[in-house]
Amino acid sequence: MKNIQVFCLVALALSFSGCKTAQFDKQPPFTVVTANYNYWSGGQPGVGGTKITIEYNTKNSVEFDSIYFQKKVVKVALQQSEGKMYVVGFFNQERSNEVVGQIDTKTKESVDPFQLAPNDAVLSYTSKGKTKYFKVVNLKEVSPAINQ
After folding, report:
1. CA distance readout (Å), 5 to 11, 16, 43, 116
2. Which pTM value belongs to this model?
3. DSSP 8-state assignment for residue 59
4. What is the pLDDT of residues 10-57, one digit of tens each?
5. Cα separation of 104 and 85, whole Å?
6. Which of 134, 143, 16 shows the shortest CA–CA distance to 68?
């Protein structure tokens, strides 16, 4: 009887852990051209963070909202330079970014609802009135530019 209860709890936990991953949009209304991130430092202790830059193309109406990266989430900014469009997310070390998911009561660490690899991110966006998620895999770590 105890084995059946343990099996049911494990099965239930696994079904909940895959909820968000099942919702990734496989054909978003945009195309990712490049995706990278870099760590930056402001020269003072505690001043720094991570910058994510995703270049994209689209012919459709898309409203980008947030980016999830390394168990944290921030609102994104849109930038345009030399005819290219970018979604940019700044994860600042001096400000506490919202932690994604729940806190594991045993380990006291955040639980990532997307279960991402360290160099993967999830882009949240709205298209045709619906919030959707797109997984961006294998972001490249790059050296920071002088003028960020």
Report:
1. 10, 17, 54, 29
2. 0.73
3. S
4. 333 433 344 444 489 999 999 999 999 999 887 777 778 899 999 999
5. 38
6. 134
